[in-house]
Amino acid sequence: MKLKPIQLLALLVLAFSGLSSCIDKDATDEVIFVKDQKAIDDYIASANLVNVKEVKDAVSGITIIWQEVSGSGIKIANGDTASVNYTGRLINDRIFDTSIESVAKANNIYTESRKYVPLRFRLGIALLIPGFEYGVLQLEKGDKATVFIPSIFGYGNQANGNIPANSPLIFEMNLVEVKDGPTL
Predict the structure, then answer these.
(1) pLDDT of residue 24
(2) Separation CA 62–CA 26 (nearest Å)
(3) What is the pLDDT of residue 182?
(4) How far is 96 from 155, CA to CA, in rounded Å?
(5) Burial of 3 by CB count in 10 Å (0-12 exposed, 13-18 middle, 19+ buried)?
(6) What is the spatial distance between Cα 6 and Cα 68, in angstroms, rounded to a whole number?
(7) DSSP state of 70
(8) Which residues, in sequence order, are CB contacts of 89 under 8 Å at separation 6+?
(9) In sequence order, what E strands does the chain have?
């Protein structure tokens, strides 16, 4: 059976319209990013955060609010090893992870077999979510800050344990140690 050009065009239009109807207009990355930004902005506006310094990256939407600026001058770079005390929470304030034992116990997420010590990792080799690494890269040793991360720079459209898909994340961070990486 040979299709006439108009039949072929009609078939293609039908196929495309069928596929496009499968795309959820409320779930595109752009729509989710805008929703995340609004949720983060609303949270910041209603929260009682100590704010001694604030930076918002216009491209990524990541916002960092410092509670303490150490003034140590010890900056971190890709390749360096960081040690960070942190508490991760959702925009509804539910804590999902922490390196601090007392916080884990107070929020019923304590695991006896886990060691509650600062998270130690090398920056720039994609071991952690991009928003967490970006936040750490903005700190100096001794700084304490809260980092607000749109979901696309967190776990995106994938759920992760008790973190739902498309969840903006909040991390309270304290950069406690910086070890220089290899010199190239």
Answers:
(1) 59
(2) 21
(3) 75
(4) 13
(5) exposed
(6) 68
(7) -
(8) 95, 96, 169, 170, 171, 172
(9) 53-56, 63-68, 81-90, 95-98, 119-122, 144-149, 169-179
Q: Give the pLDDT of residue 7.
A: 45
Q: Model's pTM, two decimal places?
A: 0.84
| Distances from the Cα of 180 to the Cα of 121, 175, 184, angstroms | 12, 14, 12
H-type helices in the chain, by residue range?
5-20, 29-46, 101-106, 130-137
Annotated domain spans of the chain: 25-179
Cβ within 8 Å of residue 50, ≥6 positions away = 67
**Tokens in use for 15?**
């196929």
Question: Block means of pLDDT (10 residues each) for the chain, length 184 residues?
Answer: 46 43 65 96 94 94 97 94 98 98 98 97 93 97 98 96 96 97 69
Start-end of H helices in 83-160: 101-106, 130-137
CATH topology of domain 25-179: Chitinase A; domain 3 (3.10.50)
